[in-house]
Amino acid sequence: MINIAVMGYGTVGSGVVEVVNTNGARINQRIGEELNIKYVLDLKDFPGNPVQEKIVHDFETIIQDDDVKIVVEVMGGIEPAYTFVKRCLLAGKSVATSNKALVAKHGAELLSIAKDHNINFLFEASVGGGIPIIRPLNSSLTADEIEEITGILNGTTNYMLTKMFYEGADYDSVLKEAQANGFAERNPEADVEGYDACRKIAILSSLISGQQVDFEDIYCEGITEITVEDMKYAKAMGAAIKLLASSKRYSGNRLHAIVAPCLLYPDHPLYNVNGVFNSIFVHGNVLGDAMFYGSGAGKLPTASAVVADVVDAAKHLNRNIMTMWKQEKLKIEDKAGSRRKFFVRMKGSEEELLPQILDSFGEVEVVKVPGLDGEFGFITPVMMEGDYETRAGLYQDQILHMIRIEEHKK
Amino acid sequence: MINIAVMGYGTVGSGVVEVVNTNGARINQRIGEELNIKYVLDLKDFPGNPVQEKIVHDFETIIQDDDVKIVVEVMGGIEPAYTFVKRCLLAGKSVATSNKALVAKHGAELLSIAKDHNINFLFEASVGGGIPIIRPLNSSLTADEIEEITGILNGTTNYMLTKMFYEGADYDSVLKEAQANGFAERNPEADVEGYDACRKIAILSSLISGQQVDFEDIYCEGITEITVEDMKYAKAMGAAIKLLASSKRYSGNRLHAIVAPCLLYPDHPLYNVNGVFNSIFVHGNVLGDAMFYGSGAGKLPTASAVVADVVDAAKHLNRNIMTMWKQEKLKIEDKAGSRRKFFVRMKGSEEELLPQILDSFGEVEVVKVPGLDGEFGFITPVMMEGDYETRAGLYQDQILHMIRIEEHKK
């Protein structure tokens, strides 16, 4: 019998208990031993719930029980999660977590402790919820240099942008609706400002570079400025707007990483990812294009990934399997050097401004939306973001909005 | 240093050598040791090619060299591949293969030999080319009961159906074009009759059931009967036609498996998979929907998957990691018991036949294509295939074609 403890009985924690109860027979068959949840750590009690007999309020109960070989951390937040997880690993207990904030900040250190103790620190659920992406990167795409990883990594904003695109609704009303039906938090900042996606792409960037990428270094722009008018231009261009979190290798270990709403054309594999779904596009230098799609959040999909980590930890009780992610920091390249097309919405009349725009930006493509008077849009040629900014500086008073264009390279 | 041998220097074999040459530094870093291709087995010589110095013509050279720890089998076909692979495993050498025919037929036995010898028999590249699917099923989706796995598993037929759909071309001319540009073999039977997809879904069915599923037991219908007219009806229905290979769990370990062209609506995750790409949709009882997409064939993508298996084998030299697939045979359920809607093209006039059709099939939905005179189509309610066949028997002389409809259950 393999005893585990679950720290946190919130949404994901109760999902973990449910998954083990529901699929226990199959899980035990895969491990080759019986998996037993010995403790559930929570501040609260759950009288009348069968979980109550496993509830403990004191972390010391778990850390001092040598029978507990694997600990699930699904409390969220940095503290006390970080202290608890570190003590578990130092005590020789493997840890599985869904906590992206913890992994983004302390992943390298926790992996290194796990390695020293011949145990495992696993975090499949921290990116993409139920979608397998961490383990594929670590153990499937091992023959490749990963040149790009671009994801729709936040279900809330994808749900909102999908609604805005297909129903023409505005940002505020879509946010209210998403909050009403539980797809957005009452304080939606972490989602709509892109912070959640930013932590996730920091984790993926660390994994593909093998070094620590700090999320604070990644330029992060949310969806709060996306308007009904922007969506009309997107439709006129035959494109969709998605919040993309992207990491691209320019040469050697030089990574460009960014979180921002982007215009995507239908030939991009992420174009059709709608609603609360997440999807992660990967380009390997020999593999070519691949994509992983599924439920990026939710109680049971996330719990499915956490329990899969528990199974993996149980099959590798005294053997470290993870991963190339050193504490040495990788400085993300300045976004001024990244290259792409830009879509620009401009106040004023095309006739008047276009000659000057052609002069500053080169051969632009004009986009007009019938009914939107007193403004027009244009698409720049591919240029460095620094060069775009220099040119955009000339039109500070006229530029209404700029949205980056993400093209699918073939 | 870890020495390996590559058996077969055809498309995939030369790709394996190229991937190891290109990404050797990263691969060695992942393994923690230097990977060295010691032998390449082929009947031919390759004078002037650097591979020549590794070429051997006699399998005995490989089997008798105790330095060779991992053997790559990319010869294809059952013999001599089966004999060679079995001898390698019995001699304590791990094997990585892309050979779907070999895996479908002898996978269970070869896995059992590998387990007995504490080594590994790995076959990621046998299904979906470069797309990671075997390893995710084996080590990521381990907390789930997999209730459905449905894939576009053959790039040739998907390329052809995409051309037929978007360009209105007929089967014969699309086949000729695919042959001319190398997407189809001169003898296209294995692809267009669905045999290739059938072996792949047999492998996936064995993995999700844990028992041997024989491809001969799976009903297999190719794309040779798909016409320009069928595509017109598909468009009228807002649907696409794809060659799907599918395995569904009805209850317990009762599996329905089938290979057949199917009509898909845009809400199905596989609807947008076009051209030579492959994609595999998976539904787990707690995970929900997931999808894996990428290059299903081709020299480098396939080689990427083979080399990833080599890396895994190198990291687990004396430890068996694969998998639940017993030799005990699982009898696939009779397709008469599977349930779905059917699209039927009928000769004759709607006015005349519809009353009788409503009487036999229940509330059907009529589909008309402007310009296609003397015929009409209808969509049946969800029914068992056996019941459909009984009813279709009444209209033998009028039914021009039946295509199954694959609905995405939410």
From TrEMBL, chains A, B:
Per the record, a Pfam family? Homoserine_dh
This enzyme catalyses:
L-homoserine + NADP(+) = L-aspartate 4-semialdehyde + NADPH + H(+)
**GO biological process, alphabetically ordered:** methionine biosynthetic process; threonine biosynthetic process
Record: residues binding NADP(+): M7, G8, Y9, G10, T11, V12, G13, S14
Q: What is this protein called?
A: Homoserine dehydrogenase
Output the PROSITE patterns linked to this UniProt entry: HOMOSER_DHGENASE
- Spell out the InterPro entries in the cross-references: Asp/hSer_DH_NAD-bd, HDH, HDH_cat, HDH_CS, NAD(P)-bd_dom_sf
**Family recorded in the similarity comment:** Belongs to the homoserine dehydrogenase family.
Q: Which UniProt keywords apply?
A: Amino-acid biosynthesis, Methionine biosynthesis, NADP, Oxidoreductase, Sodium, Threonine biosynthesis
Task: Cite the PANTHER family for this sequence.
Answer: HOMOSERINE DEHYDROGENASE
Q: Which superkingdom is the protein from? A: Bacteria
User: Signal peptide span per the entry?
Assistant: none
